[in-house]
Write a structure and sequence with these properties.
The structure is a single chain. By secondary structure, this protein is α/β, with parallel strands linked by helices. The chain is built from 9 helices and 10 strands. The strands form 2 sheets. Strands 3-1-4-9-8-5-6-7 form an 8-stranded parallel β-sheet, sandwiched between helices. Strand 8, helix 8 and strand 9 form a beta-alpha-beta unit. Helix 1 packs across helix 9, helix 3 packs parallel to helix 4 and helix 8 runs parallel beside helix 9. It is globular, with a radius of gyration of 18 Å. The protein starts with 38 loop residues before the first strand and ends with a strand. The mean pLDDT is 96.
Length: 318
């Protein structure tokens, strides 16, 4: 971070109408290299790990489109990320749309270069499979990391249709590969029906803290996030946010919606409650534009990614 260097700024709606210009994330400059960047938005347009409704391959593009409405200052928290961080849009990872197995190392290699450059990635998904190859890169740099995982589903299946890699398996594989610091993993928003009464037992056995959605209905999550911060401390932490963690009343444009989810204010409390943690990467996954005709889910996803940027280390608070 070079405080004296000129910082990229989102293109103002007074300089170009918000429906015009290149549809980069928050209308930031598009970069071809992570060199010189403190943080970058990256799309991973992959949905071949999806088990039900497809379409998240179009998520990064639609999130970028809806992000044109976001301005550079966070009026609620006072965060001014573009005053202190050099941020750009690094475009999309060129995944292999015909092969999930071949796509994973492509993603990991891309993120290895981003992290080697000292750039913190903020990822636009894509289905939740992408968390595994990203975590491989993150753990290669930082060792096993703490995790804040917001989701309706634990994503710890041993396999799906006999396949070990899918959007319902990334955190099982991450544990097996020693990518996570189990006692510093929090899974928030879990709910829905299952195949067996013990579906959520396995992550608990790994030391994860599980926070089912029904246990926090109608509650502020600020006390929970205080506990999260106390537990994680300064350990490098990854934030993985599946949009289906939020109730489908607010975010119906996703592949596996579950009723009774978190509210938008609770989602904001979770992300804003990450301020002060050593966040080394974030993702927002499972936005499926074909099921989002109003664009509301993509708009929410874009705003949550901005909130993630606002809690990165080094962001100025006005």
């Amino acid at each position: 971070m070079n405080p004296a260097a000129p910082k990229n700024q989102p293109l103002s709606g007074n300089a170009m109408p918000r429906f015009g210009g290149i549809a980069s994330m928050m209308r930031l400059p598009v970069a071809t290299t992570p060199q010189g960047l403190d943080a970058a938005f990256i799309g991973v347009p992959l949905d071949i790990g999806t088990s039900h409704r497809p379409g998240t391959r179009f998520g990064p593009r639609e999130i970028r489109s809806e992000s044109a409405l976001i301005r550079p200052y966070n009026m609620a928290t006072g965060a001014a990320p573009f005053d202190t961080l050099q941020v750009a849009d690094l475009g999309d990872v060129p995944i292999n749309t015909y092969s999930l197995v071949k796509s994973l190392p492509i993603i990991t290699n891309f993120y290895n270069k981003v992290l080697e450059a000292g750039c913190t990635p903020l990822t636009l998904g894509g289905d939740h499979t992408i968390a595994l190859p990203i975590l491989r890169a993150v753990a290669a740099k930082h060792g096993p990391v703490a995790l804040i995982h917001v989701d309706a589903h634990a994503d710890v299946n041993p396999d799906m249709f006999g396949e070990r890699i899918a959007h319902g398996t990334p955190f099982r594989r991450a544990v097996e590969e020693n990518l996570l610091d189990g006692p510093k993993v929090f899974q928030i928003g879990l709910r829905g029906s299952g195949y067996a009464a013990d579906d959520f037992d396995w992550p608990s056995q790994q030391g994860f803290t599980l926070v089912p959605a029904h246990e926090v209905w109608y509650q502020s999550l600020a006390p929970l996030m205080q506990r999260v911060r106390a537990t994680i401390g300064n350990t490098p932490c990854y934030l993985s946010f599946d949009i289906d963690g939020i109730d489908p009343a607010y975010a119906g444009g996703t592949g596996t919606p579950e009723i009774g989810g978190l509210s938008v204010p609770q989602a904001l409390e979770i992300i804003r409650g990450c301020h002060g943690l050593n966040i080394v990467g974030c993702d927002l996954v499972e936005v499926s534009p074909p099921y989002d005709p109003s664009g509301n889910t993509a708009l929410l996803g874009a705003n949550l990614l901005f909130e993630m940027l606002c809690v990165l280390p080094g962001v100025l608070k006005r």
